[in-house]
Amino acid sequence: MLTLTARIDPASAASPNLTLSLTAEQRTRSRHRFRTEEGEEVHLHLPRGTVLTDGDWLRSQPEGTIVKIIAKPEPVLTVTGKIPLDLLRAAYHLGNRHVALEVTASYLRLLPDSVLQTMIEQMGLDVQASVQPFLPETGAYHRDHAH
User: Fewer beta carbons within 10 angstroms: which end of the chain, N or C?
Assistant: First the structure.
């Protein structure tokens, strides 16, 4: 089993040896065991509060194996609207509920929740359920880099 202890800059190393696909919730775990796409068991032992993002590279100690983090597709709701102000209003209301939210210029994305879906639809926005990588905002005060 590999122990992954440090995030590294992709420019500072050779190609990754392994790939680890994680959901948004799993990317918030700093101490956990997972299995890579290649079947290798890995143990995350990262600083508490670390939030991994899609495309991060981690190095194992002492072996030096490099593992690339991939945002695993998961069930999500994608919200679109006819005008940007509608998305801003929806983001405001979802933020008041402290919902993990992916924010882009053309859509909002959140984890499935029937109550929130109804609220958004009542605001006149379109909601589509699908399976996609979920890349929520990490928060304005988060120390790690955002996506």
Answer: N
**For the chain, which domains are there?**
2-71 (2.60.260.20), 73-133 (3.30.70.790)
- Cα–Cα dist 83/50, whole Å: 35
pTM for this structure?
0.86
- Residues of the chain below pLDDT 70: 139-147
> Residue 91: enclosing H or E segment and its boundaries?
helix 84-96
Neighbours of 71 (CB within 10 A): 22
pLDDT (tens digit per residue) in 93-131:
999 999 999 999 999 999 999 999 999 999 999 999 999
How much of the chain is in helix, strand and coil states, percent to nearest 5?
Answer: 20, 35, 45
